[in-house]
Every structure is written in C-alpha cells, then in structure tokens.
Amino acid sequence: MRLVFGKPFTLTDKPLDRVTDEDMARAQAVVSEHFERIHYGPGGIAGWQGPVLRDGVEVTEPVQLQPPSTPLTAVPPGKASVSRQGVAQILWQCPVCRTNDALVHRRPLFRRETVVCQACGTLWHFQRHMGRDFRMKVLEGSPEVMGLEMAVSAWYEQMNKNFSPCPIQVTGVSLLPGEEVYLEARDVPLSPYKPNALFDGWTQREAPKKQTDRLEIAGWEFFGEGRLLVTSHRVLWQGAQRELDFMWSEMTAVSQYLRSTLALNYGAAKYRLSVADQPILKWLHTMGELAKEAGARQGRTVSVTHH
Questions:
Q1: Please, are residues 28 and 47 in contact by the beta-carbon 8 Å criterion?
Q2: Separation between Cα atoms, residue 98 and residue 168, nearest integer Å
Q3: Residue 273 forms part of a structural domain
Q4: 203: containing domain
C-alpha cells in the first residue's frame, strides 16, 4: 500500500450560480485526469501500460483478436490455489482462444517466467517492469498473435471485450427451460445484511428483496453454507435445508468486497457470498455482465465494480 499526494487543483475559476450537466462532465474529466496522473504517473494509464508492440515495432492499428473457428476442448481447473496462480488469477480466460481456466503461469527461480494456454498452446514471455504494468509477449502461437507484446492490462481488456460465458455441465439441480450454468462453487457462505426476512421464517424460494426494518446497529450475519451456481437466469444458492434464487431481473448491483467476497444488491436487500479459492474477477465479470444485460433489457442501469 502506498500514499501519494498530488498538487492542489481547482474545477472552476469562481463559484457557479448554477451547475449544468456539462459542468459536471467537465469537472469529472478533470478529477479523473488528475487522479490518473497521481496513480499511474505523468503519462497516465497509457504511459503505465506502454505501447503495443509486434516483434519490437509499435502497432498503430487497434488490436482485434478473433476467436477460433471452432470452440476448443474445455480444460479441467488446475489444482493450484488461487494465491499461487499468478497472472492466471487475472487472465482467467485465454484472450486468444477464449477457453476458461486454461492459462498456467510458470515462475521458475532461475529462468524467465512464461504463461502458457493449455487449450490453444499459445506461449507468452511474462516480463516485469519497475513502476509500470507487467507485459506479456507471444513466443509461440498462431500467426495472428505471434510476436505480439502488450501490457497485462491490455490483454485483460481484450479478454473482457471478447467475453462470452461458457456453459458447464452440473448435476443435482433442476434448471429452468433454456437455462445454462456457467459457474459453480461449493461451500460458499451466504451472509445477508440484517435485518433480513431470511432470519424470520422466510419460506419463499426467491431471496428477499427488501430490508424489513432498520436496526440501531445493523450488520452482516452468517446464514449458511452451500453450493453456488451462476446461470443464464439467476444466481442459485443451494444450502443444506433450502435453495435461494437471485434472479438477474432484480439485481441492482454486483461488486467485490475485500479479496474473495461478492456483494449483491438484490432489490433493496444486500447479500455477501464468499468464493474463496476461486478467481474473483472471473465471478465478478461473469455476474456483472449477466446482471447488466438483464438491466439493459429492462431499461435500467446495474452498478458493477470495474477493474
């Protein structure tokens, strides 16, 4: 953790009698630019990322990675804990072939670090640069990406831009017509923000969408542990005694809390789900995209944490 101080700045030369939307937009742009310089340096995000290169020559055209003509075989999840997966925690889907959980970050003591996709075979050299973003250069791969070198954040942007959820096969669940399952995790603690009707004999399958009252000292309380499924229609939590549905049509916000906890705003009620030993960005992005798509169909905006 570091603490950085910038120089004072102003948003207007004098107080305004009336603030318009244009004034707010200009002010937000100034604030964003100021904090970007403080965090990333004089060059901002672009300077921190560095240029896109191919065989050492700067690429001036936008990079557009095309998916394979036919989907590749899924890769079984690795056995390494999330904390030992390196950059695979961030690039949880191969940005070249779009296969989930396919990247392996190899970090030998006395040789260069590499990242390899177990599905398409693309091999990157993983490079560390003091004060700047890490970089990855393709050493082996298809002609379209051979020699391509970008910051990790740029590869991450490509992965997100080309994202589409991948269905998986699961058992022990009754799916709705046309429903697909995308993510599964076991032993997931569910903690509603009290007061919540779940603690007062709630019998409906759908999770409560309202805060029942106000407490002088409110807080989160453990409700139970169960299997968590993310599907095309809902977030499904299967506890020992009951199941709870969180439908995308009622989701108002999806965010990350601390390292491995997902925070959901379901209507006006709030919930936390801990997906320890899972790539949190994979869950956050998948759930965020599904929630935003449902919101867009209804003409509303869903708040999602961005990385």
A1: no
A2: 14
A3: yes
A4: 181-304
